[in-house]
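Before relying on records like the one below, remember that each one covers exactly one chain. Contacts with other chains, cofactors or solvent are not represented anywhere in the record.
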Amino acid sequence: MLLNARNHDYRSREVGFSLLEVMVAVLLISVALFTVSQTMMLIMVRSLNAMELARQEDQGARFVSSITLATKTATSCGIYSDLKSYSSAPQENLAPQGDVLVCDSTTESGTRILYLFVYDPISLTLKRFENNMTTERMSLNRCHRRRPLCSTRTLG
């Protein structure tokens, strides 16, 4: 019986990867890295949006608190239709509703503080001034005027 002796040298094939295997591996790694990076980007965008929303809510709550404090401690208050009517004649131009709230307050030491809350319907900003129109203390952007809780129309 004759045996054919072959010299199978598989070592030359086992030494490295073929070009196709390397390309497939690089493609799979790049897809995995792209997926991870997009997921991280989405998480970062959502967290930034949540932080901005929390900041706006906090600023709104502080603004409401300042209005509440100003009206509670006020010795006199007035509502004006706009800033021009307040500036021209404050005593004669009082209105039942408007864009300017003025609260005159006095501290325990006797110091007079004038709080002005001015809403600008064009730029949708609400600003708080103290003592004069040059001392802006707070500003709230993109605030929309809500409808009044009760309306003046008659029910039929």
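The chain is about 40% helix and 20% strand.
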